[in-house]
Amino acid sequence: MTQLPTHTDKKLGLVIDLDTCVGCHACVISCKGWNTENYGAPLSDQDPYGADPSGTFLNRVHSYEVTPKDGAAQLIHFPKSCLHCEDAPCVTVCPTGASYKRVEDGIVLVNESDCIGCGLCAWACPYGARELDQAEGVMKKCTLCVDRIYNENLPEEDREPACVRTCPAGARHFGDLGDPASDVSVLVAERGGMDLMPEQGTKPVNQYLPPRPKDQLALPADEQIDILAPFLEPVATETKGFLSWLDKTLEKI
Amino acid sequence: MHPAPSVIIFSSFSGLGFGLLFWLGLGMPAMTGWAAFAFFVIAFGLAVGGLISSTFHLGRPERALKAFTQWKTSWLSREAWCAVAALLLMGLYAIGMIFFGQRWALPGLLGAIASLATVFTTSMIYGQLKTVPRWNTPLTPANFLSLCLAGGALLAGQVTIAVILLVVAAAVQVAAWLRGDTALRDSGTDMATATGLGNIGTVRAFEPPHTGTNYLLREFVHVVGRKHAQKLRIIAIVLMAGLPILLMLLPFNHFWGILAVLLHLAGVLCARWLFFAQAEHVVGLYYGKR
Fold first, then answer.
1. Contacts of B247 (CB under 8 A, 6+ apart)
2. Which of A139, A141, A120, A115 shows the shortest CA–CA distance to A59?
3. Hey, is the C-beta of B73 within 8 angstroms of any chain A C-beta?
4. Which CATH class is domain B5-287?
5. Mutating which of A17, A57, A114, A116 best tests the B interface, going by the most B Cβ atoms within 10 A?
6. B203: nearest CB among A64, A95, A208
7. What residues 181-220 of chain B have any CB closer than 8 A to a CB of chain A?
8. Where are the domains of chain A?
9. How many Cβ contacts (< 8 angstroms) between chains A and B?
């Protein structure tokens, strides 16, 4: 049913560290790879090698330039996928019951055999987390790798979403955000994790950690410390020998 | 938003069709026999044709019947129920009018209510969306319902009512446009809240996730047509209300009546195109396209 559960036992989700993300798009590729080869319809591409390629992705990395009032502009890479909202507007608009939020862990999923591809859930999502697959005609979205996290056929270290497993910068964290003692909840509390578009009232589970201040090294010139300077001092201040004589003689000419 | 022709045609034609069914259900006009047959063919043709057109934008139309299951939460599902109820009730009523020369008031009244409810549910599919601030207002159902009632009255030949309702519909339409132009700004959603980076400084989209386009950009970040939006608005309001009112004020003549209906329909189609083409979905903020 598309009625949202009043309570979920867990709130599984991602914590994305905007301070650490290097914008390599490895999470995008691993997501596309895993979700094309495993649960549900593959994520199709249209005209992939032609002049106008496009395709279905469950995770996309934007890059933003943020310019403070004083100081240099910062480039911030911004991965975005389904935020598995507590008050998910995509679920309640679904006419067929294909979209649902799980009571046991709060994951928002699409039952692809019930989806009529009307697109209304994608209209209702403010984050652009849902994409209608052009080959299959059904709605695709992040499953939080539901076929990995409980998969006992995988080694234990692989039982997390593909994007988290692959991130070389450690910018993505997975866990239960409903448990205040979990690693991810502690991280969110320490770093001041934030909701995207809080005014939309979706109560997203996924949290974003804001970039740390970047301008602490910008000291006045006389206070700047150059750790290489001692090594760049001239080695010999007093010269002697033949080359010293030659140098001085040539100077005099 | 992408102005998909199937959805524009669906909402305009079925709105007009259900509007005519509403007035027929109230017995305005209370015709029987062949005259009633002609009215009901037009009304059912517009309403059903519009509904069929709406299935063309589905990715999996063969599963459309599943859309009846989620009436508790989904306006789209409620629309399906209301449309079927309206068509069945009005079908029964039409049988009485056409074949038995009798006006069965109860199915007529219930059918009229269900017809209006169908248009209301259609409008709420758009009106409920917080993600499109331009639509997220009671003016959206007011806009759809006033056009449905005015167009229906025009088709039903209710001259005085049609003129009054056309004036009302035009006023609601202008109000919806005026409010809509500042709706995104007034919603409080901008690139700062979308990215959460607003407290560091001004946010600018530097690089999109892909060099090509995608479903989201095609569906939600349509920017064609904004250049001529003001001209199209004037054209829409003149066709939708201005000219039909003038024609209705002339001495009644069937040719002027048909012309008024056609002009009105052209105006509604133009306004409905603008309704979609001008709607700004907040996901565009992530792409810096607002």
1. B256, B257, B259, B260, B263
2. A141
3. yes
4. mainly alpha
5. A116
6. A64
7. 187-189, 191, 193-197, 199-210, 212-216, 219-220
8. 12-209, 221-252
9. 201
Contact B30, B39 (CB under 8 A): no
Its ipTM equals 0.90
- Looking at the DSSP assignment, which residues form a beta bridge with residue A161? none
The token pair at B243 is 């000219």
Cβ neighbours of B188 (radius 10 Å): 13
The CA-based dihedral angle spanning residues A105, A107, A113, A117, taken in that order and rounded to the nearest 10 degrees: 160
A192: contact with B, CB 8 A cutoff: no
Contacts of A25 in chain B (CB under 8 A): 209
CB pairs under 8 A, 24+ apart, for B20-23?
Answer: B20/B46, B20/B151, B20/B152, B20/B155, B20/B156, B21/B47, B21/B86, B21/B90, B21/B111, B21/B112, B21/B115, B21/B152, B22/B112, B22/B115, B22/B116, B22/B148, B22/B149, B22/B152, B23/B112, B23/B152, B23/B153, B23/B155, B23/B156, B23/B158
Residue of A64, A89, A131 with shortest CB distance to B197: A64
The whole-number average pLDDT for the span A112-128 is 94
What letter represents residue B156's amino acid? A
Q: pLDDT tens, B4-41?
A: 888 888 889 999 999 999 999 998 888 888 888 999 99
- Residue B44's CB: how many other CB atoms inside 10 A? 17
pLDDT in tens, B31-78: 888 888 999 999 999 999 888 887 888 888 888 889 999 989 999 999
Q: How far is B82 from chain A (nearest CA, A)?
A: 13
Whether the Cβ atoms of residue A84 and residue A10 lie closer than 8 Å to each other: no
| Domain layout of chain B by residue ranges | 5-287
CA distance B63 to B151: 32
- Fold (topology level) of A12-209: Alpha-Beta Plaits (3.30.70)
**DSSP state at residue A194:** B
What is the three-class DSSP state of A81? strand
CB contact under 8 A, A96 and B195: no
Which residues of B fall within a CB distance of 8 Å from A97?
A: 66, 69-70
